[in-house]
Write a structure and sequence with these properties.
This protein is α+β, with helices and mostly antiparallel strands. It has a single domain, classed as paralog of FGE (formylglycine-generating enzyme) (Alpha-Beta Complex), CATH 3.90.1580.10. The protein contains four helices and 14 strands.
Length: 320
Amino acid sequence: MLAALPAAPATPAPTAGMVWISGGTFEMGSNDPMFEDAQPVHPVSVKGFWMDETEVTNAQFQRFIEATHYVTIAEQVPKAEDFPGAKPEMLFAGSVVFAPPDHPVPLNDNLQWWSDVAGADWRHPEGPKSSIEKRMDHPVVHVTFADVQAYATWAKRRLPTEAEWEFAARGGLKQKPYVWGDVFKPNGRYMANTFQGHFPEKNTGADGYRATNPVKAFPANGFGLYGMAGNVWEWVSDWYRPDYYRQLGTAAVANNPQGPSSSMDPSEPGVPKRVQKGGSFLCTDQYCARYMPGGRGKGAPDTGTNHVGFRLVKDAPPPR
């Protein structure tokens, strides 16, 4: 009698590792005076969608690399013709890394704490001597918008819109300052990975981390999504404009807004930006408290850093 053949491994469900977000209408934005580009608060309606339960991890991104042999932007040496006038010694494979000074500095010049580091990439978050070997369950970082789009195509998913991301981050709460409610540290408990101490030179790590954390290290929000505040900024699909919410207005509900058709950032005219959401391990009320769900970040699509990652969504039928 022939031995039974082993069963073929089950094909992963198309929405494995994702949470169904039913959609609905909510008040988007923030009345916080720090967030002028997130005003006015305005009504928005989004359709239902699936969303990654966590940020995409190093382990997940490694599977993509092994399957496709994709080379991220940070791992490529820039072409001289794309950067006319650049000195040859500045054309190296690498990325932008948080490099805190050893003393207090004015907070109006972020070049005081960021550095272009040769050899920094998703495998080497702080530079060539660093490794993700013990950080496979941390979010992948140093990914540009193009890198994220390549991963999304492979995974048959897409980036969320800014509206979808914020609706999901709020977890069913209405205009609360944090994705978990009204108080930053309920009962003295840290709920997200942010910056403690004096920014930028001294992070005490009181929440347990000075850089990224495992994607499920802190509690999920009301929809079962982890890391919707702090840890790493997350790319979304929208172009950034500080006046976009004013263009939408408050008179009517915006249905599934896709963002403006082009970008404008007054702080860097001529440099297009995409929206980023959720804040990171570097956010602090001394400088950037944009771990609040209504806060908005921005980034040049061709630039990755060691505090920016992503998660994806999928248009598929809801669970039965």
